[in-house]
Amino acid sequence: MSRIIAGAAGGTTLAGVPGSLTRPTTDRVKEALFSRLDAFEVISDARVLDLYAGSGSLGVESASRGAAGVDLVEFAAKASEVCQRNADLINTVLRRKVVSVHRSKVESFLERAGEGTRWDLVFLDPPYPLEEDALAAVLAKLLPHLAEGAVVVVERSARTPEPSWPEGLERFAEKKYGETRLWFAEPGVPADEAAGDAGE
């Protein structure tokens, strides 16, 4: 059973998704991931997006640790219901609505997002069968919605190749934990801005 590791709701047990269609992030990987994110100082007051949210454990962990707002995006009916239960749990603990649940396909959600919508921290933990070109397409749709200095975390099987990053999104770190590999990326500096800085 997964739990919230730290923050205002630390120790709270989370609901899990029944069956084997989702692959929850283990507490060991989650603890290591959030330790790194704490070091990056990207969680406090962040706008967080959890795509392919499953039970929503990464998003609600962010809320517990001080994120300003969290969007959980999950299409599967059972998983979306569990996301809502976990969102209600953390919102009750925090005594305000921090976490919102969106039952939607990831691609559709990003297409509907307003032009000015930006997130500071994004988690993607897609199902293993998702093809690499489909993941690349999602990353391309996500790119315009990344705030300056945003961090994108992609969780995949250790046996899958590195994601194909769209132009403008650059990998800056990776870490393997057993059968899981985490990729960290950030928006790159646009070429015209980089050229301007070089000329100063």
Please state how the strands of the largest beta sheet are arranged side by side: 3-2-1-4-5-7-6
- Give the class from helix and strand content and strand pairing: alpha/beta
Count, helices = 6
Shape: globular
Oligomeric description of these chains: single chain
Number of strands: 7
Our measurement of the CA-to-CA distance between the termini, rounded to an integer number of angstroms, reads: 55 Å
Low-confidence stretches: 191-200
Can you give the mean pLDDT? 91
Q: Kindly provide the radius of gyration, computed on alpha-carbon positions and rounded to a whole number of angstroms.
A: 16 Å
- Beta-strand proportion: 25-35%
Order of helices and strands: HEHEHEHEHEEEH
What's the helical proportion of residues?
A: 25-40%
Main sheet properties: 7 strands, mixed
Question: What is the structure about, briefly put?
Answer:
With about 200 residues, the chain is α/β, with parallel strands linked by helices. The chain contains 6 helices and 7 strands. It has helices at about 25-40, 55-65, 75-95, 105-110, 130-140, 190-200; strands at about 45-50, 70-75, 100-105, 120-125, 145-155, 170-175, 180-185.
